[in-house]
Amino acid sequence: MAKKGRVFSGARPTGRQHLGNYLGAIKNYVKLQDDYECVYCIVDVHALTTVETTRDLIQNTYEMAVDWLAAGIRPGDSIVFVQSHVPQVMELHTYLSMVTPLGKLTDLPTFKEKVRDQPDNVNYGLLGYPVLMTADIVLYKSDVVPVGVDQAPHLEFARETVRSFNYRYNTKALIEPQMKNTEIPKVLGIDGVQKMGKSLNNHIELAATPEETRQRVMQMVTDPQRMKRTDPGNPDVCNVFSMHKVFSSAEEVQMINSECRTAGIGCVDCKKRFAENLNKHLEPFRARREEIASKPDTVWDVLHEGGKRARALADETMKEVREAMQLPA
Ligand code: ADP
Predict the structure, then answer these.
(1) Is 57 in the pocket of ligand 1 (CB under 6 A)?
(2) Which of 119, 138, 239, 255 has the most CB atoms less than 10 A away?
(3) 14 lines ligand 1 (CB under 6 A)
(4) Tens digits of per-residue pLDDT, 13-31?
(5) How far apart are CA 20 and CA 55, in angstroms?
């Protein structure tokens, strides 16, 4: 079947993925493969703007790739690779930086946030992050980039940068990417308050054992107003209930919805049911993961093969870019 175009998305190598990554990104990555030619990049260079040490970079890249593949990203169809394996992206970043007004970068909310987060490490790479992200997208002539609201300013920046470059060099070498507004759910952590994330240690790892998963689920905070088993609860404010809506059957969701409100079911039972359904859902993923992880070399082979395909695309784009800029051949 003819594809609708090329999708690009990148994620920093954060190691083993959690439920937030799964529902907020990976599930969508897998689905997009049906309609688009997909380019999925593990952006290790971007990671360098914030990490204190590169000690875990290789392992984190590997673990994330295993999770992606186990979740259903198909390396035969999609290009799955590591950002630094395509050095052309650094070259394009430099050229794009010349058509980027400094003020635009300093004005971006994400940059201001990072300055607040790491005042002792406001490095140049941090400022140039959106330029590198633009290079990532346009190097592979991507048509579509799935983004959530928080990434929208970056994509708008990428589009403007493409227009500036094409205008400045009177070329059509770079494609202005379309924003595909993706409804990215904000998955809350087991604390029920903050966004699920590794740094807060409020996450549930996809690759955890069923028993570890059960223990994490049993720690989940439910409706804070429900103090005793006999108190009626409010599923509308309960994170466990939102998870049931994703992982449990419609009948069970309906049953919990009414039984919680009348104290017919307690939080402990409700969580046990969720843990069971989640484990059932993750069973095929875990089996595939184990199989993939038993042959670590094949994972690196996938990434290297993806890198080769990505470099071939990059070479074509860079040839056009250099010609348009009238750089000496
Ligand atoms: P990055 O800096 O590359 O976004 P993250 O590990 O923070 O790295 O996130 C990777 C992907 O997973 C992103 O698309 C992000 O939106 C998604 N994600 C991470 N945590 C959550 C969460 N708690 N809820 C929804 N989506 C999430």
Answers:
(1) no
(2) 138
(3) yes
(4) 999 999 999 999 999 999 9
(5) 24
